[in-house]
Description:
Elements: E1 17-19, H1 21-27, E2 31-36, H2 48-61, E3 66-71, H3 76-88, E4 91-96, H4 106-113, E5 117-120, H5 130-142, E6 147-149, H6 157-177, E7 183-188, H7 192-204, E8 209-214, H8 219-236, E9 248-251, H9 264-277, H10 286-299, E10 307-312, H11 323-327
Parallel strand pairs: 2-10, 3-4, 3-6, 4-5, 7-8, 7-10, 8-9
Antiparallel strand pairs: 1-2
Pyridoxal-5'-phosphate is lined by residues 46-47, 76-77, 153, 155, 187-194, 285-286, 313-315.
Amino acid sequence: MKKFAEKICIASLPTPIYRAERLSANLGGPDIFIKRDDMTGVGVSGNKVRKLEYFAAEALREGAGVLITCGGPQSNHARATAAVAARIGLLSHLVLGGPCEKIPEGNLFLDRLFGAGTTFIPGAPLLELAEAMEKTAGSYSREGVKPYIIPLGASDALGSLGYIDAMGEIQTQSKEMGVTFDHIVFASGSGGTLSGVVAGCLVHGLDSHVTGISVAFPPEWSDAKLEEIFSGLRDKFIPDLPSPSGRYKVNAAYIGEGYGKASPELIRFIRDVASLEALLVDPTYSGKALFGLAGEIAKGTFKKGERVLFIHTGGAFGLFPYREQFAGEF
Ligand SMILES: Cc1ncc(COP(=O)(O)O)c(C=O)c1O
């Protein structure tokens, strides 16, 4: 496998790919395969771990004492950062745009277990937490602890290397299975996974068309983020990285009422997927994206005879804060 930077190895890799037979039959369209990146670990789980392996290596190289990052109170990325910090013996501090829950649920409960420090900023939009991270970094520095800031979603050129590697892994598995994937589909938020998957297809010679189902931002935002990350990748790691044009699409038709908001249809779909496939997907990320895939199958975008690889990017702990919404559906 091509190596572009140093990383530490924490994720359980390769994650399996399996054919979701019942879900495919139920949706009546293409053959759906699932790449189980929800199985990169337990506390240290989901898509972010692949990116954090690179950030953790850089933080250790720089002699950092605390990993600082940001997200919503139920951020999987923040929880994974806290877990990685605990694994490598560093402190972690999470700047969370939302209110502090009295009794922490889901990911926030795990943040506490992993020993993360927290700063809550009620009402702060996700894209406006960078300044608060700088402030937090300043207070650690003053106490003699070297801070290392990981951007929102670990989404920059360094982080995207995690999904460039994942595409090499998928290329190998695809050869072993004798299956080529016409499409690769997954949840897209801060854009690092999307950029890594598209760049990874180009680097490893996969012809699959990539669809990121946006869970938060409009396609123009995601396109601009991808361009920014591609430019960083060319500057720092892969000077001859080809253009991504025509290789991917961002579909923002399934954001619904907004980031983290779940319609009754989405809740029922998540329940049905769990009972059909024993697959746990959450309303904010993987469930919304799979719901989007189902919606596009119904519209005929993905057709019978095609093979679709859905990357399950994790997020199961994010199911728990939605228990009340599920209550009426059992
Ligand atoms: C479970 C899960 N899936 C998908 C994503 C989206 O990844 P990205 O932010 O790299 O677009 C996230 C981001 O937090 C996530 O937690």
